[in-house]
From TrEMBL:
<feature type="domain" description="Ribosomal RNA adenine methylase transferase N-terminal">
    <location>
        <begin position="19"/>
        <end position="191"/>
    </location>
</feature>
<dbReference type="GO" id="GO:0052908">
    <property type="term" value="F:16S rRNA (adenine(1518)-N(6)/adenine(1519)-N(6))-dimethyltransferase activity"/>
</dbReference>
<dbReference type="GO" id="GO:0005829">
    <property type="term" value="C:cytosol"/>
</dbReference>
<dbReference type="InterPro" id="IPR011530">
    <property type="entry name" value="rRNA_adenine_dimethylase"/>
</dbReference>
<feature type="binding site">
    <location>
        <position position="106"/>
    </location>
    <ligand>
        <name>S-adenosyl-L-methionine</name>
    </ligand>
</feature>
<dbReference type="GO" id="GO:0003723">
    <property type="term" value="F:RNA binding"/>
</dbReference>
<feature type="binding site">
    <location>
        <position position="84"/>
    </location>
    <ligand>
        <name>S-adenosyl-L-methionine</name>
    </ligand>
</feature>
<keyword id="KW-0489">Methyltransferase</keyword>
<keyword id="KW-0963">Cytoplasm</keyword>
<feature type="binding site">
    <location>
        <position position="12"/>
    </location>
    <ligand>
        <name>S-adenosyl-L-methionine</name>
    </ligand>
</feature>
<keyword id="KW-0808">Transferase</keyword>
<feature type="binding site">
    <location>
        <position position="39"/>
    </location>
    <ligand>
        <name>S-adenosyl-L-methionine</name>
    </ligand>
</feature>
<keyword id="KW-0949">S-adenosyl-L-methionine</keyword>
<keyword id="KW-0694">RNA-binding</keyword>
<feature type="binding site">
    <location>
        <position position="60"/>
    </location>
    <ligand>
        <name>S-adenosyl-L-methionine</name>
    </ligand>
</feature>
<dbReference type="InterPro" id="IPR020598">
    <property type="entry name" value="rRNA_Ade_methylase_Trfase_N"/>
</dbReference>
<comment type="similarity">
    <text>Belongs to the class I-like SAM-binding methyltransferase superfamily. rRNA adenine N(6)-methyltransferase family. RsmA subfamily.</text>
</comment>
Amino acid sequence: MKHIARKRFGQNFLQDDHVLGHIIESINPQANDAMVEIGPGLAAMTDLLLRSVKHMHVVELDRDLVARLEKQYPREKLTVNSCDALKFDFGSIPVPEGQKLRVVGNLPYNISSPLLFHLAQYAPQVQDQHFMLQKEVVERMVAEPGSKAYGRLSVMLQWRYHMSLLFIVPPEAFDPPPKVDSAIVRMIPVANPLPCDEATLEAVVQKAFSQRRKVIRNCLSGMFTEEQIIAAGVTPTDRPETVPLEGYVALANLLKPVA
């Protein structure tokens, strides 16, 4: 029986064999990898991964797809976690000694940013992440200071990860086709992130980009004096999108120094 994609779950199923092959090649799965896939859907990528990986986990919210997956694969090959990825404890997945988790998935575009932030808390336990996302979101993730795409998502994720846009995926590769281009992003956790209190960094970055047309001195008015902004190595007349990650970390450390 054909599964009808559900809008409330943001379902767009990848069906292009060439694109799937390119993704698997980029991931380069190995037999003993501790692999977890978010939103396996109709298992197009799952099936290809299991040709290399001895066992893997998937996280799926749609109960119909959960039942389908459990019927399709034996438990010794696939562990199906029937839950919302936004609430799932990725640290609960058993990982062999000396290894880290590898996370992959065609992420639902309607929850991509919250899901990326949820996953960030597990970064120290992760080897790498390969995701399909809306192209515009990936461009924001990897944007450099000075770019129009550079913003809160860029700063917060670049503090945690080294990221690169690998390739673009057109709408016709999916069923149903989304209205936007997609892209594959590779995310490798930074071994030693710049020392900083995450909540404070988030607060500074959020306030800075809430009025991105203004200069940073005005954006951060009430949080920092002009002298403090200068002390952090940031030019007060710069706009938020020109301030590098290091500048935001220095500002956060003025508010809440880390030991």
